[in-house]
Amino acid sequence: MKLLEIYILRRVGQMFFVALLPVLAIIWTTQVLQRVNLVTDSGQSVGSFAMLATLILPSIIPIVLPFALVIGITQTLTTMNNDSELTVIDAAGAKRSILVRPILLLAAVISVFSFFVDNVVEPKAKTGVRQMVAETYADLLSTVIEEKNFRKIDDGLFVQISERLAGRVLRGLFVVDERDPAFDMIYYAREGAVDQSGTSLLMKDGEVQRKTRDGNVSIIRFDSYSFDLSDLTENRGEATLRASDRDLSFLLNPDPTDKDYIAKPGSYTAELHRRLTDWTLPFVFALISLVIAGDARSHREARLHPMISALGIAFALRWASFYAANEIDTRPAYTVILYGIPVVASLIAIVLLNFHRRLVPTAISNRLSAISRLLSGYLGPRKNGKSGGAA
After folding, report:
1. Cβ contact 154:265 at 8 Å
2. DSSP string, 226-295
3. Whether the Cβ atoms of residue 286 and residue 107 lie closer than 8 Å to each other
């Protein structure tokens, strides 16, 4: 690799990491905060929360990588153009491959890394998250819930116990179940216990009230009653794995006896095709960024910032891929569209690069720039005028 290519690769790589880390940190924080209730409601330690946060991270990385690369490429090339470096490279008679080769090399490495994370690391991390949630909730009633305090243990499910005795025995049970939209169930029991498997709450000497949405109430007394906890405990403390939790080998050859696969075979097909296409997005976005920001332009030329154009097209392609992948579940014909999106976008970008054409026509770019300047000029004086009037 030539010295100039190393220089370009280093600058783009640095800008890529500068863009990646803060965006990744923000999205990671928002995702982690959504799981805080798992720790606070179940009395888990800070170490468990840290483990949960670590397991969430791999699911975010493949989503952020392509857009961070777009920012890194467009910002670096725009800075080089403003510093007349691209002009000097063209004037020296250097081939365009000097600029294209290091950027596409970086994009290829990022694509391979994205494939590895999406198909190897992320499924294991998601399985770990599900297993952690299952183990947390499996023993929630018998060990965690404080006496004489209402505790929400699931959406629409609340429990209170008066006293906890030896042998997993609970005294003074009060359970409110609002998970069914048609009616609410309220359980009272003098005594109860969670069975050893953690899938049932056995209540003795109590009554259950069934209240419908129109206000009708029916009351039934019972000597013993079994309240099903299998949904809450994720099948006896073992996580129920979905299509997104499976590794690539399982998606390529699903187990025909797997219950989730039998119930939702379309979701496994959709997940397989998504895995086989998403990893190409960094390379596709790199080609688009090169088309938009890879040529030397005059400082006097009015144009929309290349980052805005590149990110707009990248978001549109990402949304189209996401939509097509979701539709495959019910409409398999969208498989062709899902594979066609990166292929067609890449071919168009390669043709434009070879013929030195622009992805966004000059007339449209100039008009968008004019609108941007008009809005900034309108809002600027208006703001200043208000400030002056106030003074």
Report:
1. no
2. EEE-TTTTHHHH-PPP-GGGS-HHHHHS--TT-HHHHH-HHHHHHHHHHHHHHTTHHHHHHHHHHHHHSS
3. yes
Least confident of 103-107, 151-155, 374-378: 374-378
- In the chain, where the domains are located: 3-136+241-377, 142-197+199-232
What is the rounded CA–CA span in Å between residue 388 and residue 391? 5
Rounded to 10 deg, the angle between the 265-278 and 334-354 helix axes is 10
Q: Hey, CA dihedral for 117, 119, 125, 129, is it positive or negative?
A: positive
Spatial CA neighbour of 290 closest among 115, 69, 113, 140: 69
How remote is the C-alpha of 75 from its chain's centroid?
25
Tens digit of each residue's pLDDT (9 = 90 or more) over 146-203: 666 777 766 777 888 887 777 667 788 888 888 888 888 888 888 888 766 556 778 8
Q: Tell me how far apart the alpha carbons of residues 12 and 159 are, in angstroms, rounded to a whole number.
A: 55
CA separation for the pair 166, 202 (Å, rounded): 15
DSSP letter at 146? P
